[in-house]
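Subject: sequence -> structure tokens, single chain

Hey, anyone have a minute? Need the predicted structure for the following. Not urgent.
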Amino acid sequence: MLRAPELYETDPNWLSAYASSDLILLVDDDPEHLLLFSTVLENAGYEVLTASNARDGLRLLKTEPISCVISDIMMPETSGVDFVKEARSSSKLRLIPIILLTSGREDLEFASLALGADMFCLKKDARRLLPAQVDFLLG
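Reply:
Had a minute. Here:
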């Protein structure tokens, strides 16, 4: 399988090949949430890559065939909001769906969507909602 940089160089229709896998990138600085949400998504049939910070998440997003990103908003160093801005600024990545997670700041939902996230989910609801949200975005 071609990796993302090779796809950019060899296939003008790279996005369809890039988005045809069901590989989910989960970015969260909390190891317990990474384990919980990756297990939920794997049980729903998805393959999951995890990153414990936005910098590593962006590196994976640029090098792996990611179909959808789920990222925490509140992380040290680089926030989920900055992660979305960076992904949306790239012509190669801007169409990959992004779901932003938060522990309790419902007021961030509209700001997240305005910045380019496709969906928003409270962590307390994520076990129940994330598989359906990913299904919807990839459907």
